[in-house]
Amino acid sequence: MSNVKKNYTEAELNNMNNDELAALGTQLDGVTVAFRKERFPVEGDPAEKRASANIIIWLVLSVLGGLAFLGVYLFWPWEYKSLGEDGLWWHTLYTPLLGITSFVAICALGIAIVQYVKRILPEEISVQRRHDGPSDEVDRRTLTALLNDSWKTSTLGRRTTIKGLLGGAGVLFGLTVIAPLGGTVRNPWKVRHDLDYSGDGTLWTSGWTLANEGVKLYLARDTSTIAEMHDGESGSHYSTKGLARLVRVRAEDLAAGGMETVFPLAEQDVNDGDKWSKDKEVYENHMHSIHGNRNAVMLIRLRHSDAQKAIEREGQEDFHYGDYYAYSKICTHIGCPTSLYEAQTNRILCPCHQSQFDALHYGKPVFGPAARALPQLPITVDEEGYLVAQGNFIEPVGPAFWERKS
């Protein structure tokens, strides 16, 4: 390296061809090319054609996989179908097809690139000594020449079919990654449908918002009941008639220090206790309540001695019923379920990122990344002894990046 000339004028650099600049660049960068061999020295070699055909096959598969992914993503029936509904089988294929087609698009592109490097590019072993400091003009010029030399020796410029397919596969690969993000972009303030167990499409509504419309909402537990097999004149079939997936909760159903996950249950959808009917069909509505992504609530019965020490939040002093407190189960960090309750410390735990909330201090965060208190649902007991919602949450349920007052 000590004998290599480093100072070149603009005119000298302009007089050099690309091969000379590339050779100079390797010398200036301390690169020693120990071994270099063309894969196919003779143009038109049958082995070269076979290698190209193999790469083309993989690129075609990648293109087809990308197109199939976009087709499934845009046109396949994706909306939820419950048991017994028409189109359930097609709906269940939606996610697997997205996985399979994206796998084909991405993996086939990766294999094609690896095959091109292994079977088309020249074999080369180079050793480079590292150096510090910024690059000067001669380094920049020679680097450009090296890149040009790499393009020329790659022979990709004259491989029109492979180049076109590689470009197409690359674009489709990008769309395969980016397109699903489009489904997450939505106007959080737009009302999309009538208010039901899933809210109305806006981010501040949930099934509990039905209380604002005067609907009596019970706190109901999930019994995990599934469709039953029935035998009749028309043959065997599954039926949910008379079944209740959600049942109402009484105050005495929960032991001191206990916790229960509950969901909103409208009075018209009750099918338990004295309101049970073998002919009532409410199972589908129960499932809609359970699947409502902001409906889950932690019903906690504090030990009486602990409840005496509870600190109420201003304006929410009457949200609890005796020793019973109801907090949203949706973590205010990024929306994970706060599914753990530690009775000895009265802390609510989120297993995703270890946020902890104090049930004795209006669900205030005491540890972890969550910065907002869990919204508290106002509850009471009706004349029959069932726990019901006194009203809706007074703030949006979920992560702290929505408008909140806490």
UniProtKB/TrEMBL annotation:
Keywords: 2Fe-2S, Cell membrane, Disulfide bond, Electron transport, Iron, Iron-sulfur, Membrane, Metal-binding, Oxidoreductase, Respiratory chain, Transmembrane, Transmembrane helix, Transport. The chain crosses the membrane at residues 55-76, 96-117, 164-183. Gene3D superfamilies: Rieske [2Fe-2S] iron-sulphur domain. One of its GO terms (cellular component) is plasma membrane. Its main location: membrane. Pfam families: QcrA_N (PF19297), Rieske (PF00355). It is found in: Cell membrane. PROSITE patterns: RIESKE (PS51296). InterPro entries: QcrA_N, Rieske_2Fe-2S, Rieske_2Fe-2S_sf, Rieske_Fe-S_prot. Residues 299-388 form the Rieske domain. It is a multi-pass membrane protein. One of its GO terms (molecular function) is monooxygenase activity. Belongs to the Rieske iron-sulfur protein family. Iron-sulfur subunit of the cytochrome bc1 complex, an essential component of the respiratory electron transport chain required for ATP synthesis. The bc1 complex catalyzes the oxidation of menaquinol and the reduction of cytochrome c in the respiratory chain. The bc1 complex operates through a Q-cycle mechanism that couples electron transfer to generation of the proton gradient that drives ATP synthesis. This is Cytochrome bc1 complex Rieske iron-sulfur subunit. It comes from Corynebacterium flavescens. The gene is qcrA.
